[in-house]
């Protein structure tokens, strides 16, 4: 066995083997994969092997497309038969609500290049899949790129291809501990000796938690028991094969919580039952391997009952075998991929429950990241940094159970899931709740979404719901007088030290503000793409406050820490809920603030983008004259023990101005009518500064060679390829939310990043990316929503306060 390598991949399942292969494909040949038993031990060997391109996140869908396209390549290179059955498949809808969801999936496919997707009738679905009862369904979607593969064959094809490219893999080699040397290299201590490695990859599947614990890391991952059954040979299958000349196609029956495909002369039926059961909740036994769990057919009986009604032939079939095996899941069902914050060269490739749809894409992303320093495309939905420190074992357990039980359930745009909540709350949570707040969880924190009158609550729908008129009242209350919002969920970072100014000048693309001032601060990667958008406040000569997106706190801290100077001249602190805040916004916001402080907050004394420390009554605060509503407004930051007092002061002083409490949905409506973008939607690390419109905040001519400067200059020269645009949409009873296709002159050319109803302006709005060549066309636009082509018009200037006169007043 080798005693050193550039990369050691821990885990010989399909994901570990894919990472190994992709590293060699990028020229990194000094790589080793270690497997404690045989390749495919754990979850891989008993997987159903299904593959498909459809995913709720378009970026993950692209990686699934890549995975399926890769199979021919690894089969040819390795000489290993992967037994690929490209049967095609149907997704079935038994309700109109589910059919609306399928129409949305179909629309997304139009800008993902999935041109062969079809929305079909139940009768057409029956022609394709004679085993169904068409009377049980209202519609379906056909996808020709679905099928299944042999799990053993695929895993060995990856591993053999990697070996041909120079990699090595060792089976029956157990990793017992991991230590790190002062120079950052890793000591991988196995039962057969120690390997020194520059990088280690945790692709340990069922044992991912144990490999994480070797370095003091508790990964948010849990294994769930998952069952599928195999039938005896069925005459209906033989008849369908003879009639169509091919295998029975795949099917997903969401309302039955089941999936089916042909298996030899019979069928395979798997379930995601609501009565789900976690497996080995605290520790995974090391001796577990090619074993199965005791089946429990009673637990899946409700799903089977629906399945037999929807697929009558199954009721007459004999059951040959029930497979029950554990699969790992993250709290939201997506993989955990990428570098771990604060650790050197420790990489995660875990919780890939759909390994035969996603394994290739995960391997490509991680190999790119290790070799090139960047995944090469947008992997936010899989990035391990999307979870914070709140995701402990109990939280993970609750959320994974919910996610598993709802895997085939509809998630409506206005639906908030309940497991593991409430977890994080501020001191004003009870006051907000008493005022009618309807909460959502953002990065673990309970955040008011909207305020409901007595007896009113959310009714989940694809269309405008019970919240619509009340969000409108909140938005108009801000524009007409003054609103009070909770911004505690924003991310807050302090940067201090003698090197703070120089470090930030290199890290951020903006010109740094002088003391007492704020600025908008884009942060770029080396390739010039936007990796962050912040407000930056200079509180003192060597003290800065950065405000950013709450959901990206771990993501941005990982970037900050990876770029810290080694001389100790800079300290960065992520405050999380140790610093909380409120925002006052609207034409009367200055009056309310002035009523609560002896400081002069007039425009002359505190112009737009000013920041200072002041006492608000008895509360010491940091106050910035800025607002994400795009109105005259302020953000006020305090220690958590002062938040209740601050809230009460503002509510009392605001009573004379009919102060309105407003939530995140009204804030979204307000920022849309100002053409303001948001992180995770308009701003992601695949778009350049010119494409996003953030280039106006980039200090191209500052002397400092900031990260991404050369690439930013190059993009300014070329103009990039896309433009972020805003549209007014002729919507009816529903509004776009994101990922809908944008067409121009009848051709799909772009996609919506976010949208909604701009209540204060009375119109429906969308933001999205289109080719720069079309970005000056006012008309000819359409956006598809729920199978309708809605006319849209380019909105070049903000609907509200187009010249920023009120915001700066």
From TrEMBL:
Xref: Gene3D superfamilies: Aminomethyltransferase beta-barrel domains, D-Amino Acid Oxidase, subunit A, domain 2, FAD/NAD(P)-binding domain, Probable tRNA modification gtpase trme, domain 1
Single GO term (MF): dimethylglycine dehydrogenase activity
Signal sequence, start to end: none
Domain of life: Bacteria
Organism: Puniceispirillum marinum (strain IMCC1322)
Classification via Pfam families: DAO (PF01266), FAO_M (PF16350), GCV_T (PF01571), GCV_T_C (PF08669)
Coiled-coil spans in chain: none
Keywords annotated in UniProt: Membrane, Oxidoreductase, Transmembrane, Transmembrane helix
EC numbers for this chain: 1.5.8.4
FAD dependent oxidoreductase central domain: residues covered: 372-425
Family indicated by similarity: Belongs to the GcvT family.
Chain ranges of the FAD dependent oxidoreductase domain: 6-369
Domain Aminomethyltransferase C-terminal: 723-801
Protein name stated in the entry: Dimethylglycine dehydrogenase
Transmembrane segments: 7-24
First-level EC class: oxidoreductase
Limits of the GCVT N-terminal domain: 428-702
């Amino acid at each position: 066995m080798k005693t050193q390598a550039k990369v050691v991949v821990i885990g010989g399942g399909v994901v570990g083997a894919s990472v190994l292969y992709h590293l060699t494909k990028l020229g990194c040949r000094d790589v080793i994969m270690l497997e404690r038993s045989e390749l495919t031990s754990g979850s891989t060997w008993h997987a159903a092997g299904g593959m498909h391109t459809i995913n709720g996140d378009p970026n993950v869908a692209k990686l699934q497309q890549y995975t399926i396209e890769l199979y021919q390549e690894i089969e040819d290179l390795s000489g290993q038969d992967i037994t690929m059955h490209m049967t095609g498949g149907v997704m079935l809808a038994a309700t109109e609500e589910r059919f609306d969801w399928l129409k949305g999936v179909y629309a997304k496919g139009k800008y993902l290049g999935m041109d062969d997707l079809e929305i079909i009738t139940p009768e057409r679905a029956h022609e394709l899949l004679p085993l169904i009862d068409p009377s049980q369904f209202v519609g379906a979607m056909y996808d020709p790129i679905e099928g299944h593969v042999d799990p053993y064959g695929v895993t060995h094809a990856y591993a053999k291809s990697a070996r041909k490219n120079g990699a090595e893999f060792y089976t029956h080699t157990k990793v017992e501990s991991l230590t790190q040397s002062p120079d950052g290299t890793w000591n991988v201590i196995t039962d057969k000796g120690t390997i020194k490695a520059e990088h280690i990859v945790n692709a340990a599947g069922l044992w991912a938690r144990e490999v994480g614990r070797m370095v003091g890391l508790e990964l948010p991952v849990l294994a769930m028991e998952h069952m599928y059954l195999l039938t005896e040979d069925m005459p209906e299958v033989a008849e369908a094969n003879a009639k169509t000349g091919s295998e029975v196609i795949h099917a997903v029956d969401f309302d039955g919580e089941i999936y089916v495909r042909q298996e030899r002369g019979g069928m395979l039926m798997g379930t995601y039952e609501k009565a789900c059961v976690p497996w080995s909740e605290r520790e995974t036994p090391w001796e577990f391997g090619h074993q199965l769990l005791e089946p429990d057919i009673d637990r899946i009986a409700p799903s089977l009952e629906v399945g037999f009604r929807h697929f009558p032939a199954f009721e007459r079939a004999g059951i040959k075998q029930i497979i029950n095996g554990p699969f790992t899941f993250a709290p939201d069902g997506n993989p955990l991929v990428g570098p771990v914050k604060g650790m050197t060269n420790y990489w995660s490739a875990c919780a890939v429950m759909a390994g035969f749809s996603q394994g290739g894409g995960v391997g490509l992303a991680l190999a790119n990241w290790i070799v090139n320093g960047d995944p090469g495309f947008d992997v936010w939905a899989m990035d391990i940094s999307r979870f914070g420190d709140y995701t402990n074992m109990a939280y993970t357990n609750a959320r994974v159970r919910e996610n598993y039980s709802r895997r085939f359930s509809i998630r409506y745009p206005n639906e908030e899931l309940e497991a593991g909540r409430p977890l994080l709350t501020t001191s004003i949570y009870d006051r907000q709740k008493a005022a009618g707040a309807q909460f959502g969880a953002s990065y673990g924190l309970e955040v008011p979404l909207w305020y409901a009158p007595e007896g009113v609550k959310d009714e989940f729908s694809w269309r405008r719901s019970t919240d619509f008129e009340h969000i409108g009242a909140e938005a108009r209350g801000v524009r007409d007088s003054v609103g009070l919002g909770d911004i505690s969920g924003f991310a807050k970072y302090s940067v201090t030290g003698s090197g703070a100014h120089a470090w930030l000048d290199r890290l951020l693309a903006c010109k740094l503000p002088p003391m007492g001032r704020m600025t908008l601060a884009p942060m770029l990667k080396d390739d010039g793409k936007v990796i962050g958008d912040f407000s930056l406040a200079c509180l003192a000569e060597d003290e800065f406050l950065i405000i950013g997106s709450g959901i990206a706190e771990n993501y941005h801290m990982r970037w900050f820490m990876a770029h810290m100077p080694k001389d100790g001249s800079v300290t960065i602190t992520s405050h999380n809920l140790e610093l909380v805040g409120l925002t006052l916004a609207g034409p009367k916001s200055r009056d309310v603030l002035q009523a609560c402080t002896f400081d002069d907050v007039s425009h002359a004394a505190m112009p737009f983008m000013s920041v200072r420390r002041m006492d608000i009554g008895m509360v010491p605060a940091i106050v910035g004259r800025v607002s994400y509503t795009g109105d005259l407004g302020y953000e006020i930051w305090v220690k958590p023990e002062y938040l209740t007092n601050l809230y009460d002061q503002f509510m009392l002083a605001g009573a004379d101005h009919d102060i309105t409490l407003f939530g995140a949905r009204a804030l979204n409506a307000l920022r849309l009518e100002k053409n303001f973008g948001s992180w995770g939607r308009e701003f992601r690390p695949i778009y350049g500064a010119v494409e996003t419109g953030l280039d106006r905040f980039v200090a191209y001519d500052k002397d400092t060679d900031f990260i991404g400067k050369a690439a930013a200059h190059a993009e300014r020269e070329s103009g990039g390829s896309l433009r972020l645009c805003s549209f007014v949409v002729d919507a009816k009873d529903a509004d776009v939310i994101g990922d809908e296709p944008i067409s121009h002159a009848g051709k799909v050319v772009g996609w919506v990043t976010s949208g909604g109803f701009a209540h204060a302006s009375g119109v429906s709005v969308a933001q999205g990316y289109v080719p720069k060549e079309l970005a000056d066309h006012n008309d000819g636009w359409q956006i598809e929503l729920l199978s309708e082509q809605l006319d849209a018009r380019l909105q070049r200037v903000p609907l509200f306060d187009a010249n920023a006169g009120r915001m700066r007043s």
